Amino acid sequence: xxxxxxxxxxxxxxxxxxxxxxxxxxxxxxxxxxxxxxxxxxxxxxxxxxxxxxxxxxxxxxxxxxxxxxxxxxxxxxxxxxxxxxxxxxxxxxxxxxxxxxxxxxxxxxxxxxxxxxxxxxxxxxxxxxxxxxxxxxxxxxxxxxxxxxxxxxxxxxxxxxxxxxxxxxxxxxxxxxxxxxxxxxxxxxxxxxxxxxxxxxxxxxxxxxxxxxxxxxxxxxxxxxxxxxxxxxxxxxxxxxxxxxxxxxxxxxxxxxxxxxxxxxxxxxxxxxxxxxxxxxxxxxxxxxxxxxxxxxxxxxxxxxxxxxxxxxxxxxxxxxxxxxxxxxxxxxxxxxxxxxxxxxxxxxxxxxxxxxxxxxxxxxxxxxxxxxxxxxxxxxxxxxxxxxxxxxxxxxxxxxxxxxxxxxxxxxxxxxxxxxxxxxxxxxxxxxxxxxxxxxxxxxxxxxxxxxxxxxxxxxxxxxxxxxxxxxx
Length: 475
Ligand SMILES: Nc1ncnc2c1ncn2[C@@H]1O[C@H](COP(=O)(O)OP(=O)(O)OP(=O)(O)O)[C@@H](O)[C@H]1O
Ligand SMILES: [Mg+2]
Description:
Elements: E1 2-4, H1 8-20, E2 28-30, H2 33-42, E3 48-50, E4 53-54, E5 57-58, H3 59-68, E6 75-79, H4 84-93, E7 97-100, H5 107-144, E8 148-153, E9 158-161, H6 163-169, H7 173-176, H8 181-184, H9 187-203, E10 205-213, E11 219-228, E12 233-240, H10 242-300, H11 306-333, H12 336-341, H13 343-358, E13 361-366, H14 374-395, E14 399-406, E15 410-417, H15 424-428, H16 433-444, E16 448-453, E17 459-466
Parallel strand pairs: 1-2, 1-3, 3-6, 6-7, 13-14
Antiparallel strand pairs: 4-5, 8-9, 8-12, 10-11, 11-12, 14-15, 15-17, 16-17
Adenosine-5'-triphosphate binds at residues 390-391, 393-395, 417, 419-423, 426, 432-435, 459.
């Protein structure tokens, strides 16, 4: 405490009062301007007590110094009677309170009150300062953020925008503050935007990729994340994702084109096969049959040579064999059975041929669909053919089990062998063109193919194809 007082006895009196009230007091008494100035320079003080008038000093000068040194601790005047006017003058000049020496009952409560208020005031100042500096920090983060940060009302009108908003949209801050988010969105994205917007009003968040107009008339893609802050405001974060979006669209377009091209190639191959099969069957088959008939005639009209007879008989057998081969080749190219008698019959026929050729036993559990879809049947048949070819080439199997099932909305086919099992790395390898072809065929009709190495031994392939449901046509 700094006591500005010429009378040491008076000073002691106040110290004693404070000590009695429980204060641990350290103090210095000054009675001139020079002494006070030295005291102010030496340290800070928690409390100032000042007499009104002293021989070499006055309260006004003391208060002037106190203010000059920007002190904020309580300054209390304790003096003899000075009259109300002067007391009011003192308070107006910045003194915290005024007490009379002969009535010190208010002294302790006043000191307590003033110390408390100073403390509160300092706390408030600290908080205000901290707030102001954190707001400033926050503002500078937002302002310098690389992405758009904006506040808007629930009709979409911008309330605040940062620098990035101007850069990405091409509008000035003032222009943006007179615009609505919705005005910038292209017609194509507007439906999505409005739906997202109304959903945000119930969920409190929004997340969408939208196409917007740039001020220069070009279109940009932005990714928006927003949260509702209050009943009337939402906070949005936006990134320009045009490049990314264009790249993705390009990839999707290329993929679609590839798929269409693939489909075209497969169709072309199937058509080619069908026509080659027909040519072989009809032209070669008929020619061979004609040769056979002629040979029979020659044989019947042959006079007596047993040798010639035998020879011609062998030729007829060879022609018969060739006719069978021609039939098999044309059937493999495009099994007419498939179109005429359905998938199960075609699989049965092919398995019979397969068994004869390879000695691998085929176990069939086949259900036939009453009115099979030609495209689905052909796809499943080709996958089945490819799978059996792999069994011959890689499996070292003794048995193959083929299961064909029809359910209300799905056809499934499983092909299981008891061979060495397909290596896991081959299943996902980009070099397994046979497997990729099977998957691709199934994908063309929205189906899937899964390859598994069985826990015991052998390989299992599961093919699932959804059966398109024929929706009743709407009016
Ligand atoms: N049933 C099976 N049992 C064991 N391994 C198999 C079986 N089917 C496929 N594989 C393995 O998977 C690999 C990939 O098969 P995929 O049909 O893609 O190629 P490929 O038969 O070698 O050649 P291609 O392109 O002529 O069909 C095969 O090389 C083989 O190692
Ligand atoms: Mg293969």
